[in-house]
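Z., the sequence and structure:
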Amino acid sequence: MSTKQITDTLFQITRFGMINCYLVVEDDGATLVDTGMAGMGTGLVAVAERLGLPIRRIALTHAHVDHAGALDELAGLRPDAEVFMSPRMERLLSGDLALEPGEPRIPLKGGFPRRDTRATGSVVAGEKVGSLRAVASPGHSPDHIAFLDERDSTLICGDAFQTKGGIAVAGVIRWRFPLPAFGTWNLELATQSAAALLDLAPARLAPGHGTVLEQPVGAMERAVAEAQEKLRRGNH
């Protein structure tokens, strides 16, 4: 498990060279965004302790196995930490994989682990977890949320974009790392969400898979345009 300091308030923690979690520094310790795969909990806690950043809050971008897999482990190791997820996310993690009214009738993709940990705080679009503002970004999965650090305009985007294998909107294949595309539920929604995230004009883009991009707007524009063209051609 490798650790890279991105800014004074952001650390990227990576496992297997491809699964990212983030420690966001707050006055009282840190918010952990995503928990990675099952088995990563002990390592994440060790990193936080080494940095002197006790995990006070856990926030999830979505309920896929590589983002929420270690949730129960972390909740057991840090029982005092608050856990933030949306009601949609909590339903998926409880084992209820049924589509909700109004959602496109497209089968879910990717692995959704069943977990016992429940939210101590609900987070929906516009609400804050510490310094992070939640931004709804469905498409990769129906429950997907990104987080904007309003202090420095860092966007922790989960799988709404990837940079590993080349920047892409969720659902657009990068053959050097195709897993986010294979796990994407709805390309049309994912593209709409990516365009909305682009409108935020973030100073940096911190994805669930790949390196953090500084001044990413141009690259995000190209990725969104590619996804829109893919939709226009009906190649999805």
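Residues 34 and 65 are 10 Å apart (CA to CA). The helical segments are 41-50, 65-68, 71-77, 87-93, 179-182, 187-199, 217-232.

Let me know what you think.
H.
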